[in-house]
Every structure is written in C-alpha cells, then in structure tokens.
C-alpha cells in the first residue's frame, strides 16, 4: 500500500457552544457534582455540536487537493485539525512529512518589530531554521517587494503590506505538505498572481497542497481532486470540475435579516429557457428572476442586479430603471417577479448574482442581497478574464524578413 | 522524556527567537533600556536594606556590610523568580493568536518567557558581581555551588511556570492568584531575613522550596560556607518532581488549548 502524505480517517470534531468553565467559581461546583456522582450523564449535550462528522479522505504525494464548502461547513476546522492546532474528537489523522500551513500567515508578526526582524521571527514560527532564513532572506524580501520598508516597524505597514510580508515568508518555507487557506485574497492582483505562481512552483517541486478557498476558479485550476463539505459532512469527493459544479448548484446562500423592510427580495433564481439550472455554455441565454414582496405599500420601484466573478470583479451591472423599463408598485403582501433575460457572453468561471430593490425617485434602497445566486459558465474554447470575445486564430507567415536585433532587458 | 528533549532540540531556533522577541520588545522604546534589568533588583535591595536597618535598630546592633550583601545576593534571584512566574503565567494568553493559529509545542511559550527573564538575571548578576567584587567580598571554593543552585532555581521556576501558564489559559483567576501570591511571597521567603532568625522553627520556612536555594546562595557567596545539603536535596527533589509532573499535566491539557483560550 502506498503511503499517503495525508490520511484522514473517520475524523469527527465536536465543539461546544457558549462557555463551559471560565473561572474557578464555575469549575468547583461542577467538579463537586461530578465527584458526588450526580453528573446526569452528559448535561452539556445540548450545547454541543458537530463541526465535522466522519470525514475521510487521503491526498496522494504531489497532488493538489481542494476543499470547498459554504461558510460554517467545517473547512477551517479541517485545516486546523490537519495542522495540529486542534485534536479530533474521534478518528485518526496521519501526516507524513513536514507540514506547513498558510493559515493566517501574519499571525506571528509583532507590531513593534521591524520588517527584517519579523521575517526572522515569523520564519522560525512557520518552521524554518534561522540559517535557512538567512540563506533565503534576499529571496523573501524580493518576493514581498518591501525592500524600502525593511527597517520600519510593521505597525506602520498598511494591511496589504503586512499580508504580503506574511505570505512572502510563508511561501519560502519548503514543506512536503502545504495547507493553504484563503491567503490568495491578500494584496493586489499582481501579488495574487505571484502567489498562485509560487503555489504552482511548490506543487511542481513535488509537494502536496491542500487548498481551501472560496475562489472556485482557483480551486478548479489548481486542484485535480476536491472535497465538498456540507455542514461538516463530506457531500462529494472527486474531480474538481464536478465538485465545483455541484457546489455552485447547491450554494444558494441562505437569507438572513432585512425582511422587515417595506419591500424585500424574497428570492433570486437563475434559470435557462427550460427551467432552473446553474450551468451554462458561453453565449447561452439565461434568465434571472428576482422575486420581490411588499410589507407595506410602496411605489416607483426598480430592481437592479450585479453579476460578479469569484474575485469580486463586476462583470455586469444593470437595473430595470436604467434599462428604461416601467417602475412598479407593491401592495402589502403582494409579490412581483422581475425577470431579466441575459446573453451570457462570459468567460469560463463561476459568477455571483447580487440583487437590490430601490425606489428611484428618492434613491432609497429597500433591500439588497449579496451573492444571492450563483451560476457557472463554460466555454468550449479557452477564455479567461470576464468577457468572452469568441477568438479566432489565424497565422500569416512572411518569408525573407531581416531579423530585428533586440536588446536583452535589464 | 528523551523524545521530548529531542523535539525541543528541533524547535531550538524558535525558542531562541521567541525569547529574543520578548527581550527585544522589552528594551525597544524604553528610555531606561538595560537599566530595567537592574532596576527591579535595586528596588528590592533598597527595601531589604531598610528592613535590615529596622531589625538592627530593634535589636540594638549595628547593620554590617555582610547583611547588605546577603540581601543583595538573595534579591536578584527573587526578582528573577517573580518576573519569570508572572511572565510565564501570561505567556499562553498573550500569545493566543499563535496558540489558535499555528502549531508548535506550546511549552515553548513558558520556556521562552523564562529564558527572556534569564537574560535580565544575567545582566543583574553581572552588575552585582562587579559591585560585590568592589566591596571586597572575596572568592572561595564554595562558589562552585552557584551554578548548581542556579540550575535548580531555573528548574523550579520552569516547573511552576509551565503549570501556571496552562492553568491560566483555562481559568483567568489563576493570573490574579499568582499576582497576589507573588506580591506577598516576599514575606514568606527568606529574602530580607535569614531563616536562622527563627531558630527551631526555621524548618517551616525552609519547606518553601525556594528558601533553601536562596539561603544556599547567600551561604556560598557571602559567608563562604557550603549550603545545607539536606535542604538542598529537598529543593532539588521538589523541583525535579514538579518539573516532570507539570510537564505531564501540560501535555495532557495541550490538545484542548486552542478551543479554550
């Protein structure tokens, strides 16, 4: 049997809600009860909940493995278990090799120390030896792009600089197994790209990567296999593309609050011509239905939608008012469904629909729902970015040209 | 235990950096800088001299220089004892962001806390050694006891520090209890006075495992005598047993740290 770098067998983790004994005053009576044998079985049963239940998976050497799931599905708990911060309530976790976690990469920083000092401090915290840091110091600094600020205390850094320095140190720990949690949301676009490249390089170096992210595209691009968690249980495990598709289909964020307004958004649905679905081919027609309801009579209403990519880039933004459609009014208890037909000339990826309802003469927003619906677009031809411009390639070759000398770039 | 020492060896650099961080932060942005290491002991010594003077007035005898030397020799380890325990007790709580986010053996925190205080102890000891040498205290073969006594002192501090750091993580009362005990501890520990003052009741005071160590230091440095061996053995046994058991307790509690902090 081949030895897996990471093996998770039937792992469950139980958490307590609320506090148990935070001071001795609470402990002593509880201990006394226990001693007297009057502890009624498990009195805290109600306070407990399972963050993870019977999770099993293994990751092969050199594999990139994605973990997906909505907020609270247990993704972070899994990472904390894998990195050893938490211990499972039951089950076994086997780790073979040097494991390093890119979870909160700047946790080890001390605000009063300079960038240089923090590189050494954080580096040792992340598992490097001082000699290793000395050797890689220039590389780390160059990666962060913070040469000028090395002798500035990090408390004077911007939050972006802070995160960059953290990731730069973490990216230079050469682990056998790398756990990554959402760090790619730090820094500007260029830095994010550099991070992804670095992760590819670590992968190509033969390391095993476990990647937890909301960035579905990044997971689909980087990871061959993925795991979908739903309320602490494994909902699906398999090829990333299929798991991502499942996730997109299932991840309609549940609604909280805002139901007390004069008018509110009751539902946002994405469908095709022939009924509800969430996976489209580029250029296909999709319908977005926004269902609004009134609590009190209101007039001059309009509905707006924004479609964003997984990186929160706005791909499209419109409203019924700006489209010149008639405004509508709502009476108490009335329901209006506003449908927008769209041609999805979009690049491959996952998209999130947000909707809002407002009264345009007084510019009052009654309700808005972020990422109310999700859909996935695939194109048969390579298309990245936001828009699909349906590229056609042609090549023209011209013989007998004089070669142009180019100077090497400095 | 051996395996554990090997693990510590693996994390040697981290231990060093954590202690270095604590020292660095303490002396950064302070006006007094290294004077801080001397300041606390100096305050304790002054208080001790005052107490000694009061004793002398009552008994009608003059204050002799050796009395002051004795107070000084005991005050510095006492200052180390107090500062280390205070610092170790809080070491897990103040590093909660690391405890909940990154894994490495958590025992490094109280260890690093003690190590950083050991730095202060060294600074203060060097200063004291210079002063004592100038005061003409003299040298004898008995000084060879000093390293052993210091090792036992550190072992005792570690034993208590490791245990208290873990307990303070679960119960915030612990840190207040430690504060109070340390504040009044000086009255129950022979720092300003000798246990011999209590005649046949001296043994009650020597039950405090710190007392034989302080008395031992005073004996070999100031009076050029060997320490009381029986009591020294008692302290050594106490420190060793306490160190092993608090390590065991710490290890048992450690898995629950991240979710209870």
Rg of chain B is: 19 Å
- If strands are numbered along the chain, what order do they take across the biggest sheet of chain A? 5-6-7-3-8-9
Unreliably modeled segments of chain A: 39-44
Overall tally of domains of chain A: 2
Say what the CATH topology of the largest domain in chain A is: Rossmann fold
- Derived from helix and strand composition plus strand pairing, the structural class of chain B reads mainly alpha
Protein described:
The complex is a heterodimer of chains A (410) and B (261). Chain A folds into 2 domains: 6-24 and 43-250, Rossmann fold (3-Layer(aba) Sandwich); 263-378, abc- transporter (atp binding component) like domain (Coagulation Factor XIII, Chain A, domain 1, Distorted Sandwich). Chain A has helices at residues 24-35, 75-83, 115-125, 130-144, 159-171, 189-204, 216-222, 240-250; strands at 6-16, 48-59, 64-69, 90-95, 99-102, 177-181, 208-212, 225-230, 233-239, 263-272, 275-276, 279-281, 285-294, 298-309, 314-319, 328-330, 335-343, 349-359, 364-378. Helices cover 23% and strands 35% of the residues of chain A. Chain A has 410 residues and is of the alpha/beta class. In chain A, the strands form 4 sheets. In chain A, strands 5-6-7-3-8-9 form a 6-stranded mixed β-sheet, with helices on both faces. Chain A has 8 helices and 19 strands. In chain A, a hairpin with a 4-residue loop joins strand 14 (298-309) and strand 15 (314-319). Residues 39-44 of chain A have low confidence and may be disordered. In chain A, 37% of the residues are buried. In chain A, helix 3 (115-125) packs across helix 4 and helix 4 (130-144) crosses helix 5 (159-171). By secondary structure, chain B is mainly alpha-helical. Chain B has one domain (13-260). Chain B is 77% helix and 0% strand. Chain B has 12 helices and no strands. In chain B, helix 3 (35-59) packs across helix 4, helix 4 (65-94) crosses helix 10 (210-221) and helix 6 runs antiparallel to helix 7. The longest helix of chain B has 30 residues, at 65-94. The model of chain B has no long low-confidence stretch (mean pLDDT 91). The interface between A and B is medium-sized, with 33 and 27 residues.
